[in-house]
Structures are given as C-alpha cells and as structure tokens.
Design a protein that fits this description.
12 strands; 409 residues; two-stranded antiparallel ribbon; single chain; 2 domains; alpha+beta
C-alpha cells in the first residue's frame, strides 16, 4: 500500500472519529484507565521493592532480633508481644560465645520516659539502653558529636545521644552537644545526635528516641538486670536461618524450658518480616493488574460497540468505496486503523498520565523513584492489542455489505 492510500485512510479515520467525538471519548477513557492503573501499579510496586531492600539494609546486615516475651495472637487481631523479664546480658554473652556464625551482637533495653530541657517537656520518648557496638550492628550512626564508648558504659556515665526528631523538638536550631537534659529525674549530658533514619518496618519513628549506655540504663533508669532485645549480626546470609535455630535451642536450655513448653522469647528474622510485607504488596499488585485488565476489557467493549455503530452508519460510504474499486482488505484496514487510533490515544494518554502521577505520588510518599519499563511496554502493548482485537469484528462486518444492495437502498 502506497503512502497516498495510507494518508487517505488516516484522513477518513480522523473525520469519522471527530464526527462521533463523544462516543470516541468514552471508548478512549476505557483504554486510558487500564493503561493508567497498570503504570501506577507497576511503578509503585517497583518502588516498594526498592524501599524494602533499603529497609533491610538500614536495619542491619544479616540481622536477627531476639525479643523478650512470647508472640501471642488474640483472635484475628494483631500479634502481641507479652512482657518477660528473663532475657539478660548473660544470654547475649552466651550467644556470642557458643554460636560460631555470630559476627557481632548488641543487647538493648527500651522504655518510654518523659524528657525535659529548660521549659520544653516531651512525654513518652523511647529511651534505649544500648551497647557501644549498637552503631555497627544496627547500621545506625551518630551524625553530629559522637556515640558513647565502652568506658561510658562501664562507668555508668550519664551521657545521651539524641535521635534527630528529639533533637529538633528540644533544641530547634540550637547546638545540643554539651547541653544537659532530664530523662525522668536524672540529668544526662548530650554528646551526639544520630543520623536521620526514618521509620522502621513497624512504622515507628527511629529518630524519635534517645540512646544511653546500657549499664546506665539498667542501674540508673530502670534498676533492673534484664534487657528487651538482643540484636544479632550473622556472618553470612545463608547462615541466618540455621543461626536462628541454634539461638532458640541455646535459650531454651538456658531458660530451662522443657519439651512442649512455650518459649519465653522470640527470635525474629527481619527477612521473614520483609517477606510478609512483600507478599502483601504482591497481593496489591495482583489486584491492581486485575483492575487494569477489567478496564482494558471495558475499553475494548467500548471500542467494539462504537465501531459497530460507525460501520452501520457508514454503509453508503462503504458501498461507494467498494463500487469505485476499493478491495475488501482496504475496508478492513480502514476500520482497523480507526479502532487502533482510539486505543492508541487512550494508551498514550494513560502512559504519560501514569508516569506523571507516579512521580508526584512517589514524591509525596517519599518513596524511591522507579520507572518500570516493563510496565510501560506491557501497558502500551495491551492498548494496541485491545484496539486491533476490538476492530476485527466490525471491519469484517463492513466487508459483508454488497455495494449494489447498499446503493439501491
């Protein structure tokens, strides 16, 4: 087919679609919503996958968390962690000495306290008593000033390192280093401010907390000997699961838990937590793709109905074209071009709108920006396919009209 005939078909297609502009618009919208939703879902799922990887890295490399207490589930509700008081620094020491795959570990205790500086008071601030190597195990470091040392912990020095949010609430633009704050009724000297970390997998703000030496926390603030968590860093990724089993066996023995009795602790593999989160996102992705498929189906039916209507209302044009020598394949091509233009218009608008909204949405949510080229290709291909498939039946129907019968009526 020469260029002149192609341009003629395009001109006829434009005139026809403009003539039925409202019906054409409705058909375009169906394809648009399908393409738009598919682009949004693809970009959002890709961004969340990147964010999940970043969260794993931010929590610490090859990390296991030993929690004091038992995970209980009440009905269909959220799992709850009961309180127990028998996880101790001695347990942490036994884990370090008995399990070769442990690269490093850090015991920690957590409790909320009121915090005050001058006339500013903050209620319910999480205070963590941690060991100096907490920075390395949790990949969470001081950005300003310094973290406390082993000597600070041994001497039970009253020094504190503030999370970024706490520092801003208490001091604003003032330099907090060297200032004294009250945690409950005990004065602590601020020696550092942590880097900005954001929320963890549970949604808790990691910047809205204060860190003090573990021994200071145990003796000065809570007057206890037990800890809340033990953060365990494993040497290699493939040893995380066996190490979890070894820790559970060791702690059951140390805590004298007999066969059939429930553990008074929980060992949490952060990759298992992330896997559950990924499964939830996979479900959302599947639902989004189903919605996109439904939209494409509706768009295809809309194109099919408008093309049938166009064919019925253009019988005279078809008859004249056939009478002056147009072949059946010319008629088929004409209507396939028209249906493809409708779907391509919806697809292109959907691709550009989806990409633009994705950029805005990810910016507002502060998620990593990702552009799914696979999603773009699938969405655009689907829009083209919808147009071709929806145009097959109407174009074949147009070739079944006999020119003599049309011209006679």
């Amino acid at each position: 087919m020469d260029l002149r005939r192609i341009l003629l078909n395009l001109k006829i297609a434009r005139r026809s679609l403009v003539q039925f502009k409202w019906r054409t618009t409705l058909a375009v919208l169906g394809v648009f919503f399908g393409t738009f939703s598919l682009i949004i879902v693809s970009n959002l799922s890709g961004s969340l996958a990147v964010k999940t990887e970043q969260e794993i890295d931010s929590l610490g490399k090859n990390l296991l968390i030993v929690r004091s207490g038992i995970v209980r589930r009440v009905g269909a509700g959220t799992p709850l962690m009961s309180q127990a008081t028998n996880l101790t620094p001695e347990d942490a020491r036994a884990i370090r000495e008995s399990i070769p795959a442990v690269a490093d570990l850090s015991a920690a205790g957590y409790k909320t306290f009121p915090v005050r500086y001058g006339n500013i008071s903050l209620a319910g601030i999480l205070v963590g008593g941690v060991e100096p190597n907490f920075q390395d195990v949790r990949n969470f470091r001081a950005r300003q000033g310094s973290f406390f040392s082993d000597q600070d912990s041994l001497d039970r020095n009253k020094v504190a390192v503030l999370g970024r949010t706490v520092a801003e609430k208490l001091f604003g633009d003032e330099n907090p280093i060297g200032r004294h704050i009250l945690i409950w009724r005990a004065p602590f000297r601020v020696i550092g401010v942590m880097e900005e970390k954001g929320s963890d997998v549970s949604g808790a703000d990691q910047d809205n907390q204060i860190f003090v030496p573990l021994q200071t926390y145990l003796k000065v603030l809570v007057n206890k000997t037990n800890v809340s968590n033990i953060f365990v860093q494993v040497t290699r990724d493939d040893l995380v699961s066996p190490t979890k089993t070894d820790i559970e066996a060791l702690l059951r023995k140390r805590h004298k838990i007999g066969p059939g009795q429930n553990d008074d602790f929980a060992v949490i593999d952060m990759k298992d937590v992330m896997a559950l989160k990924a499964q939830a996102m996979d479900l959302i992705t599947v639902l989004g793709r189903i919605a996109a498929a439904v939209s494409f189906t509706i768009g295809g039916l809309g194109i099919l109905s408008i093309m049938i209507l166009i064919v019925n209302e253009r019988k005279l044009e078809i008859g004249i074209r056939r009478a002056v020598g147009s072949r059946k394949r010319d008629i088929v091509l004409q209507f396939l071009i028209e249906s493809s233009i409708i779907s391509l218009a919806g697809g292109m608008i959907g691709v550009f709108s989806g990409a633009l909204i994705s950029i805005i949405l990810l910016g507002v949510l502060k998620y990593p920006f990702t552009l799914s080229l696979t999603g773009l290709a699938i969405a655009f291909s689907a829009s083209v396919l919808v147009g071709v498939l929806a145009g097959i039946y109407p174009s074949r129907k147009a070739t079944q009209f006999e020119p003599v019968d049309i011209l006679r009526t």
